[in-house]
Automatic annotation (TrEMBL):
The keyword Isomerase does not apply. Cotranslationally removes the N-terminal methionine from nascent proteins. The N-terminal methionine is often cleaved when the second residue in the primary sequence is small and uncharged (Met-Ala-, Cys, Gly, Pro, Ser, Thr, or Val). This is Methionine aminopeptidase 2. Its cofactor is Co(2+); Zn(2+); Mn(2+); Fe(2+). Residues 16-29, 92-107 have a biased composition (Acidic residues). GO terms for cellular component: cytoplasm. Residues 52-64 have a biased composition (Low complexity). Belongs to the peptidase M24A family. Methionine aminopeptidase eukaryotic type 2 subfamily. It is an enzyme of class 3 (hydrolase). Its main location: cytoplasm. The keyword Metal-binding applies. Substrate binds at H247, H355. It catalyses: Release of N-terminal amino acids, preferentially methionine, from peptides and arylamides.
């Protein structure tokens, strides 16, 4: 009996020491702030309950361990009491651990929930914000700028006697009243910028030029939301190669393929309500042609810089030629001076009329006529390694209705029918044979010739320098506004 009592005392001491260690650990966990709020409340309740019953602080409902159940526990009540003292602490420790795990899980779920909320908020903001253009472009530019305010071009101040315009209250008010017109041409210019950015990705050696031209034109129709004469393509896409300087686009069945050593001029236009953006650039893959392209691009920039209200057209031409002919290019071991093509010009642009009544020369001399406020001008320059003079050659693809013709009696019924189609779809804007094919017109060549012979339509055949030469072109559209000039077609590329 004495041995049993001593054994019980020893075990009681061990259990008490274990309880003290657990109590110390719990106090440390409280100090470190690792215990959850639920565990703290539970602890306080148990302490109050133990104090009311007059037992030890850590006393609680006794839970017998599995290995102490049965006769042994009944014969040794001291052990039961000690177990009763230990079990609540051990249980609390386990519960505290479980509560901590639950707290961590809850915290993790809360964090995950917060992340999900943030993601949803971010995606909602993206859906509700401004759209981004697809690749290839397919979203109309008007949808990208729903408020109707489109990117502006490059502003350049006037010189000399017209500097006062920038600070004039009257001219600023006049500019404000022209806002609807400004937004139309800026929208057309933004379409041009996005389309030509896309075209540079597909204009590669090996591509069929007809496929490239049709892809370009389809892209314009999507981005500008083509709608008859209200908005669409202003004239056929020029894809002139090498010695051909302008006005060439593939007719149906043309199998021309772009080559590495080709120099291609891409000239296309967009319009909204007849306000035309006419801009062009040159693509070359062989770096040997880089000086030629640089000469023409810088000559165009010089012409744009020189242009302005009250500036004489001949002065613009002189500035262009001076820059253009300061360049040389070496091709095949031979050095060529870059020449301005003297019988090609820039021009002013009127509503639904690509070529107005003023021509901007690209050589010195020429007209003394002055530029005026409110006019649109296409400043385009052509450089050549050949003679610097072009002539009509090759099969015609471009046609345009004579702007000054009102009524001409026609005898051929097919010619009358074709003219009705042209009036309805193009008006006085230029078109090509591919456009007639797209509208479902067939067997129209005789009727087309009849309209040309009667002066209703004008042929615009390809313009070529001597074979073996190379030509390049760059072009910008600008507007001479009340306070400054705006280079509408200016972009990051040129």
């Amino acid at each position: 009996m004495i041995a049993a009592n001593s054994t019980m005392a020893t075990k009681r001491n061990e259990l008490e020491e274990g309880v003290e260690e657990l109590t110390i650990q719990e106090e440390e966990s409280l100090q470190n702030g690792n215990e959850s709020a639920a565990a703290k409340k539970k602890r306080k309740k148990k302490k109050k309950k133990a104090a009311a019953e007059g037992g030890p602080e850590e006393a609680g409902p006794a839970e017998a361990n599995g290995h102490q159940e049965g006769a042994d526990s009944r014969q040794l009540p001291g052990i039961d009491e000690a177990s009763a003292e230990m079990s609540p602490s051990a249980e609390e420790g386990q519960e505290d651990g479980d509560n901590a795990d639950q707290g961590e899980e809850a915290g993790g779920e809360a964090a995950d929930g917060a992340k999900k909320k943030k993601k949803k908020k971010k995606s909602g903001k993206k859906r509700g914000g401004s759209l981004e253009q697809t690749d290839p472009p397919s979203i109309p530019v008007a949808h990208l700028f729903p408020e109707g305010e489109f990117p502006m071009g490059e502003f350049q101040d006037y010189k000399d006697d017209n500097l006062w315009r920038k600070t004039s209250a009257e001219k600023r008010e006049q500019e404000r009243l022209e806002k609807p017109m400004y937004e139309n041409v800026r929208q057309a210019a933004e379409v041009h910028r996005q389309v030509r950015k896309y075209v540079r990705t597909i204009a590669k050696p090996g591509v069929h030029i007809a496929t490239m031209a049709e892809s370009l034109e389809d892209c314009v129709r999507k981005l500008i939301q083509a709608n008859g004469l209200q908005a669409g393509i202003a004239f056929p896409t020029g894809c002139s190669l090498n010695h051909v300087a302008a006005h060439w686009t593939p007719n149906a069945g043309d199998k021309t393929v772009l080559q590495y050593d080709d120099v291609m001029k891409i000239d296309f236009g967009t319009h909204i309500e007849g306000r035309i953006i006419d801009s062009a650039f040159t693509v070359a893959f062989n770096p040997v042609y880089d000086p030629l392209l640089r000469a023409v691009r810088e000559a165009t920039d010089a012409g744009v810089k020189e242009s302005g209200i009250d500036v004489r057209l001949c002065d613009v031409g002189a500035a262009i030629q001076e820059v253009m002919e300061s360049y040389e290019v070496e091709i095949g071991g031979k050095t060529f001076q870059v020449k301005s093509i003297r019988n090609l010009n820039g021009h002013n642009i009127a509503p639904y009329q690509i070529h107005g009544d003023k021509s901007v020369p690209i050589v010195k001399g020429g007209e003394q006529t002055k530029m005026e406020e409110g006019e649109f001008f296409a400043i385009e320059t052509f450089g050549s390694t050949g003679k610097g003079y072009v002539h009509e050659d090759l099969e015609c693809s471009h046609y345009m209705k004579n702007f000054d013709v009102t009524f001409v009696p026609l005898r051929l019924p097919r010619a009358k029918q074709l003219l009705a189609t042209i009036d309805r779809n193009f008006g006085t804007l230029a078109f090509c044979r591919r456009y007639l094919d797209r509208l479902g017109e067939t067997k129209y060549l005789m009727a087309l010739k009849n309209l040309v012979d009667n002066g209703v339509l004008m042929e615009c055949p390809p313009l070529c320098d001597i074979k073996g030469s190379f030509t390049a072109q760059f072009e910008h559209t600008l507007y001479l506004g009340p306070t400054c000039k705006e280079v509408l077609s200016r972009g990051d590329d040129y």
